[in-house]
TrEMBL record:
Family: Belongs to the class-I aminoacyl-tRNA synthetase family.
Class of the enzyme per the UniProt entry, highest EC level: ligase
UniProt cross-references to InterPro entries, sorted A to Z: aa-tRNA-synth_I_CS, Glu/Gln-tRNA-synth, Glu/Gln-tRNA-synth_Ib_cat-dom, GluQ/Sye, Rossmann-like_a/b/a_fold
UniProt keyword terms in alphabetical order: Aminoacyl-tRNA synthetase, ATP-binding, Ligase, Metal-binding, Nucleotide-binding, Protein biosynthesis, Zinc
Name this protein carries in UniProt: tRNA glutamyl-Q(34) synthetase GluQRS
Glutamyl/glutaminyl-tRNA synthetase class Ib catalytic domain ranges (all copies): 3-106, 178-276
Annotated Pfam families: tRNA-synt_1c (PF00749)
Amino acid sequence: MFVTRFAPSPTGPLHLGHAYSAILAHDMARAAGGRFLLRMEDTDLDRCKPEYDALIQEDLTWLGLDWDGPIHHQAPQIAYYNARLEALDGKGLLYPCSCTRSDIRAALAAPQEGIAFNVYPGTCRGRPMASRKPGDALRLNLAAALEVLAAADLSFTETGPAHAGQHRVGPDAALRQIGDVVLSRKGEDIVAYFLASAFDDADQGITHVIRGEDLFDFTPVQVILQHLFGLPTPVYHHHRLIRDDQGKRLAKRDDARALSKYRAEGATPADIRRMVGLPNP
Ligand code: GLU
């Protein structure tokens, strides 16, 4: 059974790029006779707002997209994600980190195109977990994790047009490009987006992850985490991004492209499909 999801963060209104992603995932699920789920990635408690959550549901319904089952929210699961993270502590793969990097939070909460991770120089790597102070982040000791996974088949199947094929996650490239990622945010005990999302994809039985190409670079770290936690690896489909007239990827701050604005101006769902280059059913 083909199971996919649309997983927005309710930090702003949906724009044309989200509409493209949601319609594509919905249509692919329906064409395969599968399931289309809705997940709110709302662990950024400062930026996520109930009014955006409601607006997202309203926009999707207006677009004619129906999701299967109840909406899954991540915020109520924060304690559960943290409890699961402890399994890595048991294997000696985590360490506390007090390095101040103002961009860590931004990188975790809102992945930016082209800057997937800031490869961490390893300053705190020798610290034992017992030295963890309340304000510390938790990092994965990637070299140690890759040793544990030496015999694992770290690979994933990609069906998106830009990178279609089988991808192997090589240890050398992982160390160079991913490094010791933050798995739990500094001072907040909130697990990183790519970890919560890997847990949820497994818990929700997602077989196909359909999402924007800006998240392609996060896939190797998700594959590593899936193997560390004994989770299955779904098929990935990273789709093209909808860009503005200057060729820049649309972001939540681009309210000018908000779906609600087009709706208010009288556009129809068929117009939106045409604007993002998708066929009308
Ligand atoms: N919540 C992420 C976003 O809004 C999507 C994560 C995913 O689809 O894996 O960009």
